[in-house]
Amino acid sequence: MPGLFISFEGIDGCGKTTQVERVAEIIRGTGREVVSVRDPGSTRVADLVRNMLLDRGNSDIDARTELFLYLACRAQLVEQCIRPALGRGQVVISDRFSDSTLAYQGYGRMLGVELVRQANRIATAGLTPNVTLLIDIPVNVARDRRSAQMVDRLEAEEGNFHERVRNGFLEIARREPERVAVIDGTLPLDEVTNAIVDTLALRVPVMLGDVIKSA
Ligand SMILES: Nc1ncnc2c1ncn2[C@@H]1O[C@H](COP(=O)(O)OP(=O)(O)O)[C@@H](O)[C@H]1O
Ligand SMILES: [Mg+2]
Fold this sequence. Notes:
5-stranded parallel beta sheet; Rossmann fold
């Protein structure tokens, strides 16, 4: 079986981490090996940088510095983890990937969408997910879900920023409908999971869909 690369995207609190765990279990249940990663993170070097990025004490990080830190994490993740796993024919599921940088740094921080696209290509050496699940929810719903949780540096941003990010993600999906599927994240957990599984069955039938359907 060829490797398969799936990414999950969406604003904080949309349900990515929850669904990554569920979908990873479902795919494992079909007998395929699944590697779950989170971006930034999942390598020694990227975990160091991740801590820097999420530390509220680092509110003086410049927007372009931040861009390069995220890209550095991704470059390491791609080379050390994702490409080798795909080479072994495994299924890689990433909690965030390049689209997050485009949405947050390109649309949210307004660093320039084309510039960030190019920077992403350099960081990933051109690696693109086979399928991207964009879990979309309104900003206020996400905020309510997170209110009980610790607020990190990024989550402390003002409301407008998150609106730009959400719309940025939706714009990416409009531009690349063949890769990016929009999932309604306001549905109950099980319904979101079902919508994701249906999408995978439809979009990557040869690689995954038939196995999931018969699971
Ligand atoms: N479909 C859903 N309906 C209600 N609550 C949800 C749903 N999906 C996730 N949650 C809850 O919202 C919070 C954020 O979910 P999480 O998976 O951590 O989001 P993310 O990783 O995108 O930030 C968690 O407390 C989670 O249990
Ligand atoms: Mg998460």
